Amino acid sequence: RDTLKRNQSGRRTTTRTSNRTGRYVRATELRLNNDLAFDATLRASAPYQRHRPRTHLAVNIQEPDIREKIRMKKTSNLLLFVVDASGSMGTRLMSETKGAIFALLLEAYQKRDKVGLIAFRGMKAELLLPPTNSIELAKRLLEELPTGGKTPLGHGLLVAYQVLKRELNREPDLLPLLIVVTDGRANVGLDREKYYEGPQFGEIYQEIYELCGLIRKEPRVRSLVIDAEEKRMGSFGRSKKLAQAMEAKYYILEEMVKDQILKTIESELK
Questions:
Q1: DSSP character for 52?
Q2: Considering 119, 129, 157, 185, which has the largest number of Cβ atoms within 10 A of its Cβ?
Q3: Is the pLDDT of residue 71 over 90?
Q4: Which of 33, 54, 73 is the last residue of a domain?
Q5: Which residue range is the domain that position 186 belongs to?
Q6: Which tens digit of pLDDT belongs to each residue from 158-179?
Q7: Does 6 reside within a domain?
Q8: Is 64 in the same domain as 49?
Q9: How many domains does the chain have?
Q10: β-pairing, 68-75 with 77-84?
């Protein structure tokens, strides 16, 4: 499936579809899905009729004549936000994060895209808002989002992966964009009954990178990581490594004003 066109309003992305739904736009010799293009098949066979044996059929169609339909349909994007709401984010960074997401929610509303919201803090991640077109509900949940506690980043990625797989099974032509906003400082593993310290600390990131690999292997999912770490305090570079493991685009929140974040997301949705 490839994206060919973006509209300025409504369901904004026109894509090639592999099933038998959508508008028939042209024919192809490739055998893709047994969706016969009868008109194109007749045209392909016409020049050879005088040289082919007569049969009880009006037209002698052979295998090389077969053409199939290429169909296009409009589909929506899904912006799935995975937001670090742990104590390490701090009040200022959390405020900047919410401001950036509010701007993206407005853009999604204007384009009728779906949005979903996952937050992780304490010992778990939670799907606060399953993918929906209800931008007002997403905005209210984000405004009320509590912060503090530990950073179960791996569980946030696991919930995101599960949501993406479920939504793509429901709507195969959906175009998901995973947006992870975090400082990358995970300190809780997938075993939510405990958190790791000392020699076991590396186990957390081993889990995280394995989850990044699962997301990376899903060709329909595009990803980006917005690094919310305060660089003036020194950098661990965890978010950048997260982006590399996921093969995601990487941006630093402190270097991005609201308009630039919007442009970044827009470029990913082209």
A1: S
A2: 157
A3: no
A4: 73
A5: 76-269
A6: 999 999 999 999 988 888 999 9
A7: no
A8: yes
A9: 2
A10: unpaired
